Structures are given as structure tokens and as C-alpha cells.
Amino acid sequence: MIKKTLDIEIDDSDIFKNDLLDRKSEIENLTSIIINVSDPLVLALDSPWGAGKTTFVRLWQAYLNSEGKQSIYFNAWETDYADDPLIVLVSELSKWVKEKGGDEPKFKQWLPKIKKVLPFRNNWGQVQVISPRTPHTDIAYPA
To answer: Per the confidence metrics, is the pTM higher than 0.70?
Structure first.
């Protein structure tokens, strides 16, 4: 039987206080790379199940927040029930825009561009994008 370990508590006043694997230097180094790169970049965290990838990303996001950097946490494994992961990803982007006090009309202006670049098809073959008003459920804006 596989047992899930408890998530570590991340204290905003001392992010790495409970990090027994001392990941601070790796997070600082990766942050420096990400901030200074000007070309497109793909970064992969590859490690066996239970090795701490999710904890690393949660610590990294807390660190970025403490440095005034904006980030979105999206765990594809938590939403692997969705037929098309793009639906959930765009919903998370929409939710993030709203939470950060973003301009929803501006987000609506981006939707046609999103449809052109990242289309997906429903069972009837129509290209659609989810509504930014109702994350995860409302499918609107038919092409």
C-alpha cells in the first residue's frame, strides 16, 4: 500500500523553517535563472513518486510570493479527471486574473487569441473556450 506523507507547513515569515531537505539554495538558483532568461524556457522536475516535487513547487511559489513575484500553482495530477486539461488550465488562469484584481474585460479580449492558439474540441467537434465567469463548468464562446 502507498501512503501519502503529510504536507509540510510553510510559514510565510520563515518559508524554509520546516524544510528538512534544505531546498532554499536550489529555489534561489532556479529563481535567478527564470527571472533572467529572455527566451522561451521549459523546466521539468523529474523525480520518483514521493520524492518531494510538489513540496518543492509549493516552497518555490511561497518564495516567489515573498519576493513579490507573481505565480500560478497548477497541479495537473489533481485534475486528471478532466477530459481536456486545457479547460482546467484556462479556468485557473481566469481565477488568477480575478484574484489578482485583474481586468476581466481585458481577459475576454484575450479569449479569441486563446482560441486560435490553443483550441480544443468537444464531442460535437466545435472549438470552444470556457467562460472566465464560471471556472470548470460553463463552456461558452463557441467558435
So the answer is: no
